[in-house]
Amino acid sequence: MQELRELVRSAGVDILSELKSARRDPDPGTFLGSGKIQELHDLCAEQHADVAIFGAELSPSQERNIERELKCRVVDRTRLILDIFAQRAQSYEGKLQVELAQLRHMSTRLVRGWTHLERQKGGIGLRGPGEKQLETDRRLLNQRVKQIRQRLESVRGRRALSRRSRQRAEVPVVSLVGYTNAGKSTLFNTLTGSGVLAEDRLFATLDPTMRKVELSGGVKAILADTVGFVRNLPHELVAAFETTLEESREATMLLHVLDAADPEREAKSAQVHAVLARIGASKVPVLAVYNKIDAVPEMPARMDRGASGAVSAVWLSALTGDGVALLHDAIAERLRGSLQLYDVLVPWGAGAARSKLYAQLEIISESSANELGWTLRVRANADAVQAVAHALGPKILITAVPSAPLAAEPHVPDAVQLQAELDRDLVAVENNKLIPDLTDTAGSAAPVKLAQ
Fold first, then answer.
1. Do residues 327 and 358 share a domain?
2. Which of 48, 145, 228, 446 has the greatest number of C-beta atoms within 10 Å?
3. pLDDT in tens, 122-151
């Protein structure tokens, strides 16, 4: 009921009264029983209600029968969400997606608008043109759906082109996902310094927004803010917003934003994962972000790690900024985990190739000490390096740097692990075994851990 209230408030409707009903199974004709229908009729008449909103999905026949009983307009949960989406959509793509969802939903309810033209009974002079009119409407609707799909295909083509450009440049995409009103847009604004609309209501923003962001250690990424999910998201919306949801499916990593102050956050988290599975994004790596810790008494900002030492969750407040720096570090650490260091030797006469390297890869440093040419140290994954090597030709010499996997920040071990390492090193000293040199890259992890 609380979610239904928030949906109604987001649609700009005043709530006059509420009615709850418990049934084992919905009535096939009117969803509610005859007694509840009469009670609802009296309540609507007493409150002079314009519309009765149901917190469930109604079939076309149920919707038509309830309207006949109540003498007022009836809106189910799916139509309510579609109406909210129609109000919020601002971009050309968003409006097309919402219209496509509305037409798909309307296609099963065409009969409601033309009941006075339907054939009532046989006989000469008693046959109405209703069937012909319905067929005409259905054909016009299908033509409009086809036009919208063609336009969305062109939008998808442009998105795919932009995505290929980002992939060639090896710019990772981090997509914000989560239940609606969890604070995704506020977090997006905090991370990128943007001015995306962020309000305390469901589906405040629909249109996908992408911004470039620089994280800790010079790691660069594209941050994408997508539409929020909701319990039992209508199938029409999932199908219509396929081009928008592609950003989540093709992302390098997902930031699953949850409301830390919401007692139902675990149930909503399950709903989000269910939608991610429906759109084919269940295999994308996920980092949990617990937002709104300012609404939880004595809840500090922190970073949680799993058994492997990798960051699994960050607790923060996008409103106050507390813990946002931890999220920067966590995202950078997760993104750097799949990258390696390479030394690229570029001959002196290959200035154009050197410029392409700067444009397509992340350059860590450059040295001109080698008499054969420039030596550029780059950070990238193996696929990107192979693509660059193939494009620039055999004159470019690429060598992997030893110990190339970039572990981001060293993981702070617990007391048991520290004690075990101390005991091991003491035994090594007693046996006159050499302890790794502090200046050696491969052996620097142990002294760092001991210091911590």
1. no
2. 228
3. 445 544 454 556 677 777 788 888 888 888
Task: Give the residue from 114, 135, 158 where a domain finishes.
Answer: 114
Domain count, the chain: 4
250-265: pLDDT as tens digits: 788 899 999 999 888 8
Who has greater pLDDT, 162 or 282? 282
Q: How far, in Å, CA of 404 to CA of 412, rounded?
A: 21
Cβ-contact 335, 215 below 8 angstroms: yes
Q: Which two tokens stand for residue 46?
A: 């007493």
Quick one: tokens of 447?
Answer: 């002294």
Distance CA 69, CA 31 (A): 12
Q: What is the rounded CA–CA span in Å between residue 278 and residue 282?
A: 8
Same-domain status, 345 and 319: no
Residue of 123 and 71 predicted with greater confidence: 71
Enclosing domain of residue 252: 167-336
Average pLDDT over residues 213-228: 79
Note whether 83 and 223 are same-domain residues: no
Task: Kindly state whether residue 367 falls inside one of the protein's structural domains.
Answer: yes
3-class DSSP string for the chain: CHHHHHHHHHCCCCCCCCCCCCCCCCECCCECCHHHHHHHHHHHHHHCCCEEECCCCCCHHHHHHHHHHHCCEEECHHHHHHHHHHHHCCCHHHHHHHHHHHHHHHCCCHHHHHHHHCCCCCCCCCCCCHHHHHHHHHHHHHHHHHHHHHHHHHHHHHHHHHHHHHHHCCCCEEEEEEECCCCHHHHHHHHHCCCCCCCCCCCCCCCCEEEEEECHHHCEEEEEECCCECCCCCHHHHHHCHHHHHHHHCCCEEEEEEECCCCCHHHHHHHHHHHHHHCCCCCCCEEEEEECHHHCCCCCCEEEECCCCCEEEEECCCCCCCCHHHHHHHHHHHHHCCCEEEEEEEECCCHHHHHHHHHHCEEEEEECCCCCEEEEEEEECHHHHHHHHHHHCCCCEEEECCCCCCCCCCCCCCHHHHHHHHHHHHHHHHCCCCCCCCCCCCCCHHHHHHHC
Judged against a pLDDT cut of 80, whether residue 29 lies above it is answered with: yes
What per-residue confidence (pLDDT) applies to 289? Answer: 94
Task: Note the residue count of the chain.
Answer: 452
Query: For residue 29, is it within any domain?
Result: yes
- The Cα 440–Cα 351 span in angstroms is 34
Structure tokens at 103: 């037409």
Average pLDDT for residues 3-28, to the nearest whole number?
87
236, exposed or middle or buried, with CB in 10 Å at 0-12, 13-18, 19+?
buried
Residue 197: give its domain's CATH number: 3.40.50.300
> Of 332, 369, 149, which is closest to residue 242 (Cα–Cα)?
149
